[in-house]
Design a protein that fits this description.
Length: 344
């Protein structure tokens, strides 16, 4: 569990990818993935897609992994139709071809694990009869901003929801924060699931701006404690394994260790008492940039070159650990009159 981290110290010619249109969103992880894919294609080391243009793998009975070489999702075949998670943008025809390999049944339900156009942008291309399900935050956000013009959810849920078909049940669990409706999708009887963008195998996990890092750890711990054999990470050409998830958790653990040791380097050995940071707020604010840089330097000693996107994505982890320990700004006492010229 995350709280256990607090006691640790620090020891000294390939197939081209599916073409994307101009709908690409301004998302650091997605932009980075595109540049890495382009580089691997140039070097001829990208996993070669079959001539059909996609990868289709059976993860368990009636549960299938689909990848266009860069992004991935899953679909579940029930006796009364297909449940599709995240209709990937630009991949509707390929997903339909993949489905026809294993069933003639139509798509009867679509689940949005996120409101990202890249993940759900082709939902409209699966007809109008499928029931669309999403977390209530995703539903609300799509009503306000829907650049891909995807169908709005017909059903929404709060914390958890069970989607039951005639032959199989899917569990939907809210894993985002108060402003993020991201959803963990599990097929418990088959011990597989989908965890969008949180633990991509061999990648530094991407942190959304303003997302609390300890919540990220707790979400991954929650999945780690569940009985599963594989998960779909949202990107890549293979499912993730329990070992991949543990590697991601180890990165978070080492990130916290690096932060803690950086505190000792910057402020001295008396900066910690037990599991508590003992540095005056003014000193902490004055040194927060130096602290984050030292954390990154220490983290790079263990992880630099071992995970994709380290240079671009790891600094956010150190800044997040610093922000977590930054004291809240003092609130004015009730009845206090603001100074002249102060902003309300």
């Amino acid at each position: 569990m995350f709280l256990a981290f607090m006691g640790f110290g620090w020891g000294c010619a390939s197939q081209p990818a599916v073409e994307k249109s101009g709908l690409e969103e301004n998302h650091p992880l997605h932009a980075l993935i595109e540049s890495v894919v382009a580089s691997r294609q140039k070097e001829g080391t990208l996993t070669t897609l079959p001539e059909k243009g996609y990868l289709l793998k059976s993860m368990a009975q009636d549960v299938y992994f689909f990848s266009n070489g860069t992004d991935c999702t899953l679909f579940v075949v029930s006796s009364d139709g297909v449940v599709l998670i995240d209709p990937l943008f630009g991949s509707a025809e390929l997903i339909k071809k993949a489905m026809r390999e294993v069933t003639t049944l139509p798509v009867t339900a679509i689940v949005y694990s996120t409101d990202s156009p890249r993940h759900i942008g082709d939902a409209a291309r699966f007809g109008t009869k499928a029931t669309v399900i999403a977390h209530e935050i995703i539903a609300a956000r799509l009503k306000k901003h829907n650049p891909a013009q995807v169908p709005l959810p017909h059903m929404s849920f709060g914390t958890d929801y069970k989607l039951t078909t005639e032959s199989i049940t899917l569990e939907l669990h809210h894993i985002g924060g108060e402003d993020n409706g991201d959803t963990l999708v599990l097929v418990p009887d088959r011990k597989v699931g989908l965890l969008p963008d949180r633990a991509i195998p061999n990648w530094v996990p991407h942190l959304e701006k303003g997302e609390h890092i300890e919540r990220r750890v707790l979400v991954l711990e929650r999945l780690n404690q569940m009985d599963f054999l594989a998960y779909v990470p949202g990107h890549g050409d293979r499912p993730g394994s329990p070992e991949d998830l543990k590697r991601t958790l180890k990165f978070y653990e080492d990130g916290y260790r690096a932060f803690r040791f950086a505190v000792l380097r910057v402020f001295g050995e008396d900066a910690w008492l037990g599991t508590s940071l003992r540095v005056e707020p003014e000193r902490l604010r004055a040194k927060q940039t130096i602290l984050a840089r030292e954390c990154y330097r220490l983290l790079a000693m263990h992880w630099g070159g071992r995970l994709k996107g380290f240079h671009e994505l790891a600094p956010a982890h150190c800044h997040a650990w610093v922000d977590k320990h930054m004291p809240e700004p003092a609130k004015p006492e009730s009845g206090t009159v603001p100074e002249a010229g102060a902003q309300p």
